[in-house]
Amino acid sequence: MPPVARLPGTLSAGELAPKGDDSWFRQVVHGFIGAASVLQGFREGFAEALAVSPNQYLVLIAAAYLEGEERPTIADLAKYLGIAQPHVTTDAGRLVRAGLLRKEPHPSDRRSILIRVSPQGRSALEGVASLVRTVNDVLFADITMNEMAVLDTVTTRLVRNAIRARAELALALPRA
User: Fold this and answer.
1) Is the pTM of this model over 0.85?
2) Which secondary structure element, helix H or strand E, spans residue 104, and what is its range?
């Protein structure tokens, strides 16, 4: 039986595809996809524990972590999470109706709304904190601070580069 011809490379030759061989690159990308799927599964579990959607969990936990001297706005949450502002607005609205978040008028910008975790929301997050901590302790048990710093750098670059990559994909796809 003749050897099977290799598919064209999925990356131009360069540091990530020496001699045009993208096998290692593909392995790393598939690892990222697997890791993202695992993290998504945990997010779904934490959301289920709070009886909210996974995206609502993200908005709620982000609001809690961004609270400080100043309450975050919808725009702050969207930027922090890297998701579109209308999606954050929708999920925040649902969390407000569920009593987990509160909206307050911005003192100096009438167009902005400040988001605040309600006492009920804080209690819910405190109730799931032990589970989140246990999962994170196991999940990140043998990962060093330096490795996390590299991961932070890489994921930040991937998100930034994704904007340009999405534009390339959009140009290549037929318009509906």
Assistant:
1) no
2) strand 101-105
Q: Does residue 14 form part of some domain?
A: no
| Domain match, 91 and 72 both | yes
- Domain annotation covers residue 9: no
Cβ proximity of 42 and 135 under 8 Å: yes
Which range marks the domain in which residue 106 is found? 24-140
Helix ranges (DSSP H) in the chain = 23-50, 54-66, 74-81, 85-97, 119-139, 145-172
168 in the same domain as 86: no
Is residue 4 included in any domain, yes or no? no
Q: How many structural domains does the chain have?
A: 2
DSSP helix/strand/coil, 17: strand
Residue by residue, pLDDT tens for the chain (176 residues) are 777 777 788 887 678 887 778 888 889 999 999 999 999 999 999 999 999 999 999 999 999 999 876 789 999 999 999 889 999 999 999 999 999 999 998 888 888 889 999 999 999 999 999 999 999 999 999 999 999 999 999 999 998 899 889 999 999 988 86
- 166 token code pair: 């999405």
Residue 29: helix, strand or coil by DSSP?
A: helix
Backbone angles phi, psi at 57, to 5 degrees: -60, -45
**Sole residue written with tokens 């994921």:** 155
